[in-house]
Amino acid sequence: MMNAFKLKTLWILALGCMLATGPVSAALLVGDTVVINFTESANTVGGNWNDYVATLDSSITDPAPLTLISDLIRLSDGDNTGVGLQIDNFTGENFGLGGRNEAPDASRAFPVSGAIPDAAQRRLTFHTEAGQQYIFTGLDDNLIYNLSILSANTAGRNAHAWVANPGVNQTSILVDPDDGLVHTFFNLSTNGSGSIILQSTTTGSGVNAQHINAMELTAIPEPGTLVLIGIALGSMLLFRRRD
């Protein structure tokens, strides 16, 4: 049977693993969340949201990649995280803001930040002629992440696949903009260089255009860390009952 010293040591190690999963300088830590929307105004839409501001129906051309937001703020306190958001993999006049004014739905909500403000739902990016990539940069390679997206355009748009981390271990979700649902990619790792990529290769305008209204990214503990914490907690409870 473990003595009290060993159990306390196990608990301290488990707690240390949870709090020190990345370098001390990391600004997006376990439990931290960033939320992003695309609007025509610099006004925040609710809480500590990150707004990408552009002119309605504007388009962005080469060069790519293009940094949309270089230093995302954290939802909990508005502090800078050092995490950036880029778009890439496009040529010509095929990325912009507008297309239509999406009717908000009060039931739409992200897992962490909750109800999505109307302004974050109304305006959306459009992408045609070529596939698109959203790239999160400056992430901690020692953490894993949940990424939620709202791709709602309830005006007769076709469904298409969004892929997280394209390649051997990619995760794909079929998104129908007409259903206006929030979709989540769970337990995403980085590419080893501090980045997570969200990609769609659908091409075409009108009903085939790709859209993003808003995104939420949350850093979570690795499964192995959660198991270690669970073992430590269980051992401490068992020890206390026998004490």
Topology of this protein?
Elements: H1 4-19, E1 33-39, E2 50-53, E3 58-60, E4 66-69, E5 84-88, E6 95-97, E7 109-110, E8 114-115, H2 118-122, E9 125-127, E10 132-137, E11 144-150, E12 160-164, E13 171-175, E14 182-188, E15 196-200, E16 210-212, E17 214-220, H3 223-242
Parallel strand pairs: 1-2
Antiparallel strand pairs: 1-17, 3-6, 4-5, 5-10, 6-9, 7-8, 9-16, 10-15, 11-14, 11-17, 12-13, 12-15
Helix pairs in contact: 1-3
Structure characterization notes:
The chain is α+β, with helices and mostly antiparallel strands and 243 residues long. The protein folds into two domains: 1-21 and 222-243; 26-220, Sandwich (Jelly Rolls). It has helices spanning 4-19, 118-122, 223-242; strands spanning 33-39, 50-53, 58-60, 66-69, 84-88, 95-97, 109-110, 114-115, 125-127, 132-137, 144-150, 160-164, 171-175, 182-188, 196-200, 210-212, 214-220. It has a six-stranded antiparallel beta sheet with strand order 4-5-10-15-12-13, with no helix packed on it. The longest helix has 20 residues, at 223-242. Residues 5-15, 17-26 and 225-239 have low confidence and may be disordered.
